Inverse folding.
């Protein structure tokens, strides 16, 4: 199996090659929190670059629950025309285009001024940065039912807009990952305790989405291979959840890892586990593949063709690439032409891992081309005074937008 061979999914859809543009948090919504013209131009560059699969950055299922102040929201059809333009543009290169749908849970900045929900009233532990995120309120059964409904509704809207699939985000410490983690989920009801209960919300969302969208629409899940925190979601837990997902019509599981508290997704782990510089989670994927009946995708640090090829040769179906594709969107085309491109950022060596993680999370792209001043090279509000001012301004705009929505309702 080669890096440029097609992949047939259980739904019948076909991904033309094994290179995936993994999700990045662009924070480039327009004033209505729909995709902006800049965001659409960005996806035009990725569409032309040759990736077989493009997965969007976070699209939030609830406007009151955001990972950042300039995030895209899809909770009704008011601005569906803009989403249709986004989908059509991203599909123009011939690849599959999936919308990543998400809810942050307790990983929502306090500056956005919204009530924060989580499985349990347990705050993030980020040391001196903990105050950036508020104490969450434990969700009621009604809250959980509403979140499930919202994920299903957003998936249906994504299909109407022309996306070819969705990725349900259950990794990186966001809400569904919080339910899965025994460190964040201390519930004693049907959504807490043993792993079957902690996985209940994710499984119910997958069932609901699969029952609502058409049979050829791809349904995928992004799952932590581990939380990389002692006592957290473990590789054995990940294996068990993949086995639970197997009979539900899931087309692909993307394996990543970590959270804001333990940013393994950039190669760091709170439990001091050493991660490989490239293909961070491949070792875990090989173990999980033993129980997986659906294709797997590994994301984390891949930037060289030989590493991506080794991922495919190991039995993993897709190689997910984020930072390298932000630096060089034509990377798949260049590899196909025999070039040895290996885009790389300068390493971040700050001792405060949560802050280092935030500095690597893309915070927005204000150019229409992706070059060395690209999404991957942008810094966040935690790295510079200018970025802090920009984020505060965006947060004020978001709070004003929420207030206006409430007044109009």
């Amino acid at each position: 199996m080669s890096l440029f061979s097609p992949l047939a999914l259980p739904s019948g859809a076909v991904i033309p090659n094994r290179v995936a543009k993994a999700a990045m948090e662009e924070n480039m919504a327009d004033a209505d929190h729909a995709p902006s013209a800049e965001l659409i131009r960005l996806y035009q560059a990725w569409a032309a670059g040759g990736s077989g699969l493009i997965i969007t950055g976070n699209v939030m299922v609830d406007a009151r629950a955001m990972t950042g102040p300039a995030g895209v929201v899809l909770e009704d059809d008011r601005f569906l025309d803009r989403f249709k333009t986004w989908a059509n543009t991203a599909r123009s290169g011939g690849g599959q285009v999936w919308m990543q749908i998400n809810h942050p849970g307790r990983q929502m900045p306090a500056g956005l001024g919204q009530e924060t929900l989580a499985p349990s009233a347990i705050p993030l532990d980020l040391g001196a940065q903990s105050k950036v995120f508020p104490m969450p309120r434990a969700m009621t059964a009604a809250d959980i039912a509403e979140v499930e409904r919202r994920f299903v509704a957003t998936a249906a809207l994504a299909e109407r807009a022309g996306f070819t699939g969705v990725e349900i985000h259950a990794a990186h410490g966001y809400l569904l990952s919080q339910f899965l983690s025994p460190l964040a989920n201390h519930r004693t009801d049907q959504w807490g305790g043993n792993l079957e209960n902690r996985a209940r919300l994710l499984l119910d969302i997958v069932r609901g989405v699969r029952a609502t969208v058409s049979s050829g629409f791809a349904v995928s899940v992004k799952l932590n291979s581990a939380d990389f925190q002692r006592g957290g979601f473990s590789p054995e837990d990940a294996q068990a959840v993949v086995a639970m997902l197997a009979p539900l019509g899931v087309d692909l599981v993307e394996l990543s890892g970590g959270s804001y508290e333990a940013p393994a997704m950039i190669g760091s782990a709170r439990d001091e586990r050493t991660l490989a510089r490239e293909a961070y989670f491949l070792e875990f994927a090989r173990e999980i593949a033993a129980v997986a009946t659906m294709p797997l995708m590994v994301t984390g640090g891949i930037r060289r063709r030989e590493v991506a090829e080794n991922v495919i040769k190991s039995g993993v179906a897709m190689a997910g690439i984020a930072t390298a594709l932000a630096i060089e969107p034509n990377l798949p085309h260049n590899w196909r032409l025999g070039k040895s491109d290996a885009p790389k950022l300068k390493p971040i060596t700050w001792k405060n891992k949560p802050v280092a993680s935030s500095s690597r999370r893309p915070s927005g792209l204000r150019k229409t081309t992706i070059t060395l001043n690209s999404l991957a090279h942008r810094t966040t509000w935690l790295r510079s005074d200018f970025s802090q001012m920009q984020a505060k301004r965006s947060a004020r705009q978001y709070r004003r937008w929420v207030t206006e929505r409430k007044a109009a309702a």
Residues 385-408 form the longest helix (24 residues). The radius of gyration is 19 Å. The first strand starts at residue 7 and ends at 8. DSSP finds 13 helices and 14 strands in the chain.
